[in-house]
Amino acid sequence: MVCLGNICRSPLAHGILAHLVRENGLDWIVESAGTGDWHIGHAPDRRSVSVAKKYGVDISAQRARHFAQTFFDQYDYIFVMDDKNYRDVLSLARHEADRNKVKMFLLEGIVPDPYFDETQFEPVYQLIADRCQELIDELKSEHYR
Ligand code: 4NP
């Protein structure tokens, strides 16, 4: 799961999907990263930690990472939150196989960045949680393969 800072949106997607993976008894590895490097090593934004906690998902132990080209070799799918993340990740792709791994997290539109708007954490949580539930079903049926 990839966003810009890896402190607001992608930690939520990471935490929620990992939670559902455990609930479904799956053995998938779920991680997250940011295309920007400002927050490397930082815990998620306290507003993301708080909204996730409210719904029983603990993301407090996550630490921000910077998206690296080697991630194309480590993961089967790379889900990005918005168009800029999409362009930035694609710019690191080495070949068609790398490019094919990069998907918009939402089927339509983007996950808006809540960083500068306190009121957006709740709706962003809901948007991400709904899509994570769908993703479990899609990936289980190998929708993308
Ligand atoms: P995120 O939100 O991409 O959802 O983690 C942001 C967090 C920090 C910044 C931008 C977006 N920032 O500019 O520091």
From TrEMBL:
CDD domains, alphabetized: LMWPTP
Keyword annotations of the record: Hydrolase, Protein phosphatase
Active site: 3, 9, 113
EC number, UniProt record: 3.1.3.48
Pfam families: LMWPc
InterPro entries cross-referenced by the UniProt entry: LMW_PTPase (IPR050438), Ptyr_pPase (IPR023485), Ptyr_pPase_sf (IPR036196), Tyr_phospatase_low_mol_wt (IPR017867)
Family per record: Belongs to the low molecular weight phosphotyrosine protein phosphatase family.
Protein name, entry field: protein-tyrosine-phosphatase
Species: Sphingobacterium paludis
Taxon lineage: Bacteria, Pseudomonadati, Bacteroidota, Sphingobacteriia, Sphingobacteriales
